[in-house]
Structure formats: structure tokens, C-alpha cells
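User: My collaborator sent over this chain with a note saying "see what the structure looks like." That's all I know about it. Can you take a look?
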Amino acid sequence: MRSGTGPAAGGTAYQAIILAGGRSSRLGGTPKALLESSGRTLLAVALEAASGAGACAVAGPPELSAAVEAAGVPTLLVREEPPFSGPAAAVAAAWSALVLKDKEAGRPQPEWTLVLACDMPFIAQAVAALLAEARSVQIHPLPPSLLSLDETGREQPLAALYRTEALASAVGSIDRPDGLENLSMKRLLARVQWRNVAVPPNSTADIDTWEDAGRWSVKPGIAGIPDVPATEN
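Assistant: Without extra context I'll predict from the sequence alone. Here is the result:
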């Protein structure tokens, strides 16, 4: 992953946020980020999909530090406060870390911010579609944010390319006693304008259960993680 915020391949400058800090309750607590698809952790899959970003931040627990380092790309590892306080809080924590990094380096933030959940084994196809759409709207002065639209017609806010300015405004506009804690992405994005981008079938398929894992050939391949329960194979 390149440092700085200059244009990535194809002229689209962006930074990336990857969410990897959920409880994985329907997987018995097994971290989604450390599940494996074709011999790579799902975190590595997401980082590779975002490899054109000028900077990247992963929102997740310290236990992911080895996996982040193994991915071989310069990445910040941050944690939302309090832990497990939801995707909106995680996005804000990662975004704040990227802002600080750019300020320290004396550079502006890029036009776009890619936001991905870490549990989508085929997400690279969706990212390619989002970046292609971003390139096609560069002629407009204020292109909207871009959300993946899957084959069922469902919008995917955690597989999206946001206008950085719009995301910053959304994070800064929340005024509630608990801040962003347990705030839904829908509420965080209430004032964000976006356009849906149809992405390839199954490119945003996510792993919530062991049944999902079996369907998409995702396995618990990291040492110390228990095998998939036999009753759910």
C-alpha cells in the first residue's frame, strides 16, 4: 500500500477503513478477520482489495496486530471506544486516526474514503466496480458517495466509497449523550448523499454464521481457532 494521498491507479485518490472488531457472536466468538479464504485471512483479503489506497486504518482489537503485519501493507490498527460499540463508532475511530496521520504529514485528505467490513471473501470485485464508477463521475464537481448494491437489491454501507468530506461531516454532526456508541450506520449516514452501484453477484456476500462459511469455502485456518462445529458443516 502506498503512502501519501496522490491519485491511485486510474486517477482515483482514496484512503481505506476496514472494520474488524465485531463480537462474531454467531460464530461463537471466532474472529471473522482471522477466518481464511483460499489460504488468506479475510482481513488480508480486505487489505488486498484496498491496496490502491494511500493510507489504511483497521478498526479492531490488538489481537489483530500480527495479522495486520502479516498482510504486508502499512496499516494503522485502531480501536473504537468503548470496544464493541458498533460500526459507526469504528468508522469514526479509524477516520480520526487517518486525519491525524495526514495532519502530522502536512497533507490534505484524499477525495474518497473506502469503507469495508472484513467478512466479505469476494469484496475485491465490488471495490473494482466502485472505483470504476468513481472514475466515471470525476467530471462532476460534487459526485455523491457510492454504495454497493448487491444482486438482491440491498444497499451495502460497509462496502462503499464515500466522499471524505461527506463522511467527515457525518461523523462530526452526531450530537447525542453517548456519541457514536451503538449508533447504526443508517443514522450515521442520514445526511450523506449517495448513489447505488450495482456490483457483481456475491461480491458482498458476508460471513455471519458457520453455514455462511461453509457455503463460501471459508475456514478457521488460524492456529488456536476451533474447527467448524461438525453439526454445522
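A starting point for your reply to your collaborator: Helices lie at 42-49, 65-70, 87-105, 123-136, 164-173, 185-188, 210-215.
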